[in-house]
DNA sequence: AAAGAGATGGTCT
DNA sequence: GACCATCTCTTTT
């Protein structure tokens, strides 16, 4: 956590934001897309770490995950919320009518604000040529993140695998 | 301020 | 053909 997502917006423009809220999913977790083994959609979750997994939620919203764990594990971390760092005005324009605190405080909003879509599924975040990168700018993960149950799922509801950086 | 419902489409059975 | 790791708008206190 606390790392930066940097997205190349084309024409040299860049937008970046700090990850402040995540959820964990893995293959022994009934709520995970990887629970029943690899499918055409969830295949990238079983690939090597450092790859972006994007899926369409409720037919409307894109949600972004980062694959973690070893190749074949089927683990990923959902990016639930980010705080704008660079390109704040771009995000405001892209999500007109919202106050700043609502720009990217949900999985679908994160993708809307950062312009991440299904086309970005499978992006290798470690490749220099990738449009999207994860950057560690030296700020460490919070020592005591707020922990709670995950949101919007129907299985494994009592598994507290949502993490958020304290304060705001 | 809080609560309820509709939108909408890829994926899996 | 049913299910959803959601968001936004509308209606009701």
Question: What does this entry look like structurally?
Answer:
The protein is mostly beta strands. It has a single domain, classed as Methylpurine-DNA glycosylase (MPG) (3-methyladenine DNA Glycosylase, Chain A), CATH 3.10.300. The protein is 9% helix and 33% strand. The protein is built from two helices and eight strands, in the order E-E-E-E-E-H-H-E-E-E. Strands 1, 2, 3, 4, 5, 6, 7 and 8 form an eight-stranded antiparallel β-sheet that branches. Strand 1 and strand 2 (13-25) form a beta hairpin. The protein is globular, with a radius of gyration of 15 Å. It starts with a strand and ends with a strand. The relative contact order is 0.24. The model has no long low-confidence stretch (mean pLDDT 94). It binds a DNA duplex (13 and 13 nucleotides) through residues 23, 25, 31-33, 36, 39-42, 55-61, 63, 65, 78, 80, 106-109, 112, 118, 150-154.
Write a concise keyword list for the protein shown above:
single chain, 2 helices, 33% strand, 3-methyladenine DNA Glycosylase, Chain A, 168 residues, mainly beta, DNA-binding
Head-to-tail CA distance between termini: 14 Å
CATH H-level superfamily title: Methylpurine-DNA glycosylase (MPG)
Main sheet makeup: 8 strands, antiparallel
Share of helix, binned:
under 10%
CATH class: Alpha Beta
CATH topology: 3-methyladenine DNA Glycosylase, Chain A
Got a strand count? 8
Low-confidence stretches: none
Number of domains: 1
| Overall average residue pLDDT | 94
Q: What is the radius of gyration?
A: 15 Å
Structural class: mainly beta
What is the H-and-E element order?
A: EEEEEHHEEE
| Helix run count | 2
Named at the architecture level, the CATH assignment is Roll
Proportion of residues in β-strands: 25-35%
What global shape is seen?
globular
């Amino acid at each position: 956590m606390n790392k930066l997502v940097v997205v190349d917006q084309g024409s040299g423009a860049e937008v970046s934001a700090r990850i402040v809220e995540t959820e964990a999913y893995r293959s022994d977790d009934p709520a995970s897309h990887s629970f029943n083994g690899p499918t055409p959609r969830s295949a990238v979750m079983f690939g090597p770490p450092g790859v972006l997994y994007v899926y369409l939620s409720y037919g409307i919203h894109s949600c972004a995950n980062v694959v973690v764990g070893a190749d074949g594990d089927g683990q990923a971390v959902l990016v639930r919320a980010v705080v704008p760092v660079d390109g704040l005005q771009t995000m405001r324009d892209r999500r007109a009518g919202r106050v700043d605190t609502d720009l990217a405080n949900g999985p679908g909003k994160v993708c809307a604000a950062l312009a991440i879509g299904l086309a970005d599924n499978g992006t290798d975040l470690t490749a220099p040529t990738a449009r999207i990168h994860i950057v560690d700018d030296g700020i460490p993960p919070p020592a005591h993140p707020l922990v709670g149950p995950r949101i919007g799922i129907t299985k494994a509801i009592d598994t507290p695998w949502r993490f958020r950086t304290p304060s705001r």
